[in-house]
Design brief:
The chain is an alpha+beta fold. Helices cover 37% and strands 24% of the residues. β2 and β3 form a beta hairpin.
Protein backbone atom coordinates (compact mmCIF):
# COMPACT_ATOMS: atom_id res chain seq x y z
CA UNK A 1 0.00 0.00 0.00
CA UNK A 2 1.24 3.47 -0.92
CA UNK A 3 0.84 5.94 1.96
CA UNK A 4 1.38 9.67 1.41
CA UNK A 5 1.15 12.54 3.88
CA UNK A 6 0.74 15.91 2.18
CA UNK A 7 -0.33 19.45 2.94
CA UNK A 8 -3.94 20.13 2.00
CA UNK A 9 -4.66 22.88 -0.49
CA UNK A 10 -7.77 24.76 -1.61
CA UNK A 11 -8.71 21.92 -3.98
CA UNK A 12 -8.99 19.63 -0.92
CA UNK A 13 -11.54 21.77 0.94
CA UNK A 14 -14.49 19.42 0.32
CA UNK A 15 -12.46 16.46 1.62
CA UNK A 16 -11.32 18.39 4.71
CA UNK A 17 -14.93 19.30 5.50
CA UNK A 18 -16.09 15.70 4.92
CA UNK A 19 -13.47 14.40 7.35
CA UNK A 20 -14.58 16.99 9.91
CA UNK A 21 -18.22 15.90 9.48
CA UNK A 22 -17.12 12.31 10.15
CA UNK A 23 -15.04 13.33 13.18
CA UNK A 24 -17.89 15.32 14.72
CA UNK A 25 -20.35 12.46 14.18
CA UNK A 26 -18.06 9.83 15.65
CA UNK A 27 -16.33 11.72 18.44
CA UNK A 28 -18.64 14.46 19.73
CA UNK A 29 -21.68 12.53 18.53
CA UNK A 30 -20.89 9.78 21.02
CA UNK A 31 -19.45 11.91 23.80
CA UNK A 32 -20.95 15.40 23.94
CA UNK A 33 -24.68 15.97 23.60
CA UNK A 34 -24.12 19.75 23.59
CA UNK A 35 -21.99 19.88 20.42
CA UNK A 36 -23.67 21.14 17.26
CA UNK A 37 -22.98 18.17 15.00
CA UNK A 38 -24.12 20.12 11.92
CA UNK A 39 -21.46 22.82 12.41
CA UNK A 40 -18.96 21.37 9.90
CA UNK A 41 -21.64 21.07 7.21
CA UNK A 42 -22.93 24.58 7.86
CA UNK A 43 -19.72 26.51 8.57
CA UNK A 44 -16.90 24.16 7.64
CA UNK A 45 -16.16 25.52 4.16
CA UNK A 46 -15.67 29.05 5.51
CA UNK A 47 -13.73 27.95 8.61
CA UNK A 48 -11.44 25.44 6.93
CA UNK A 49 -11.06 27.58 3.80
CA UNK A 50 -9.46 30.28 5.95
CA UNK A 51 -7.41 27.73 7.83
CA UNK A 52 -5.94 26.23 4.65
CA UNK A 53 -4.45 29.57 3.66
CA UNK A 54 -3.57 30.96 7.10
CA UNK A 55 0.02 31.81 8.04
CA UNK A 56 -0.15 30.01 11.41
CA UNK A 57 -2.35 27.07 10.46
CA UNK A 58 -1.87 23.92 8.45
CA UNK A 59 -3.85 20.86 7.40
CA UNK A 60 -2.27 17.59 6.34
CA UNK A 61 -3.98 14.77 4.54
CA UNK A 62 -3.11 11.08 4.70
CA UNK A 63 -3.68 9.23 1.45
CA UNK A 64 -3.62 5.49 0.90
CA UNK A 65 -3.25 4.53 -2.75
CA UNK A 66 -4.67 7.93 -3.74
CA UNK A 67 -7.68 7.76 -1.40
CA UNK A 68 -7.91 10.37 1.35
CA UNK A 69 -7.97 8.41 4.58
CA UNK A 70 -7.38 11.03 7.27
CA UNK A 71 -6.40 14.54 8.25
CA UNK A 72 -4.72 16.57 10.95
CA UNK A 73 -5.27 20.28 11.55
CA UNK A 74 -2.71 22.25 13.50
CA UNK A 75 -2.14 25.84 14.47
CA UNK A 76 0.43 27.95 16.24
CA UNK A 77 -1.26 29.69 19.14
CA UNK A 78 -0.54 33.31 19.95
CA UNK A 79 1.91 33.78 22.80
CA UNK A 80 0.56 35.48 25.92
CA UNK A 81 2.20 37.34 28.76
CA UNK A 82 0.93 34.66 31.12
CA UNK A 83 2.65 31.86 29.18
CA UNK A 84 5.21 33.52 26.89
CA UNK A 85 6.13 30.51 24.76
CA UNK A 86 4.96 29.39 21.35
CA UNK A 87 2.54 26.45 21.52
CA UNK A 88 1.46 24.32 18.58
CA UNK A 89 -2.10 23.09 19.00
CA UNK A 90 -3.22 19.88 17.35
CA UNK A 91 -6.74 21.14 16.73
CA UNK A 92 -8.22 17.97 15.26
CA UNK A 93 -7.23 14.66 13.77
CA UNK A 94 -9.30 11.97 12.14
CA UNK A 95 -8.49 8.72 10.37
CA UNK A 96 -11.34 6.84 8.73
CA UNK A 97 -12.10 3.59 10.59
CA UNK A 98 -11.07 1.29 7.74
CA UNK A 99 -7.56 2.83 7.70
CA UNK A 100 -6.85 2.79 11.44
CA UNK A 101 -3.93 0.75 12.71
CA UNK A 102 -1.82 1.46 9.60
CA UNK A 103 0.34 4.20 11.18
CA UNK A 104 -1.43 7.09 9.46
CA UNK A 105 -2.07 8.94 12.73
CA UNK A 106 1.56 8.55 13.75
CA UNK A 107 2.72 9.87 10.36
CA UNK A 108 0.34 12.84 10.55
CA UNK A 109 1.53 13.73 14.06
CA UNK A 110 5.18 13.50 12.97
CA UNK A 111 4.49 16.03 10.19
CA UNK A 112 2.72 18.29 12.68
CA UNK A 113 5.62 18.11 15.17
CA UNK A 114 8.20 18.96 12.49
CA UNK A 115 6.12 21.88 11.21
CA UNK A 116 5.71 23.18 14.78
CA UNK A 117 9.44 22.92 15.56
CA UNK A 118 10.37 24.84 12.42
CA UNK A 119 7.98 27.61 13.52
CA UNK A 120 9.60 27.88 16.95
CA UNK A 121 7.00 26.05 19.01
CA UNK A 122 8.29 24.81 22.35
CA UNK A 123 5.19 22.79 23.28
CA UNK A 124 2.52 20.84 21.45
CA UNK A 125 -0.98 20.56 22.91
CA UNK A 126 -4.10 18.55 22.11
CA UNK A 127 -7.55 18.24 23.67
CA UNK A 128 -9.47 14.98 23.65
CA UNK A 129 -12.66 13.77 25.28
CA UNK A 130 -11.91 12.03 28.58
CA UNK A 131 -14.14 9.14 27.44
CA UNK A 132 -12.20 8.66 24.19
CA UNK A 133 -9.82 6.00 25.49
CA UNK A 134 -8.47 5.17 22.04
CA UNK A 135 -7.47 8.79 21.36
CA UNK A 136 -5.96 9.21 24.82
CA UNK A 137 -3.83 6.07 24.38
CA UNK A 138 -2.73 7.25 20.91
CA UNK A 139 -1.73 10.71 22.16
CA UNK A 140 0.14 9.18 25.13
CA UNK A 141 2.12 6.96 22.71
CA UNK A 142 2.94 10.11 20.72
CA UNK A 143 4.43 11.62 23.88
CA UNK A 144 1.64 13.88 25.13
CA UNK A 145 1.10 13.97 28.90
CA UNK A 146 -1.92 15.26 30.83
CA UNK A 147 -1.11 18.68 32.26
CA UNK A 148 -4.60 19.87 33.25
CA UNK A 149 -8.12 18.54 33.43
CA UNK A 150 -11.25 20.44 32.36
CA UNK A 151 -14.28 19.50 34.43
CA UNK A 152 -17.94 20.13 33.55
CA UNK A 153 -21.28 19.80 35.32
CA UNK A 154 -24.60 19.85 33.51
CA UNK A 155 -27.12 22.28 35.04
Amino acid sequence: MGVTIRTAGRRDLDDVVALSVALFAEDAGQRDPHTDLDWPRREGHEYFGGLLTGPTTRCWLAEVDGTIAGSLIGRIKRESTLRPIRVAELESMYVRAEYRGMGLGTALVAEFFEWARVRGAKLAAVTAYAANDRALRFYARAGFIARSVHLELGL
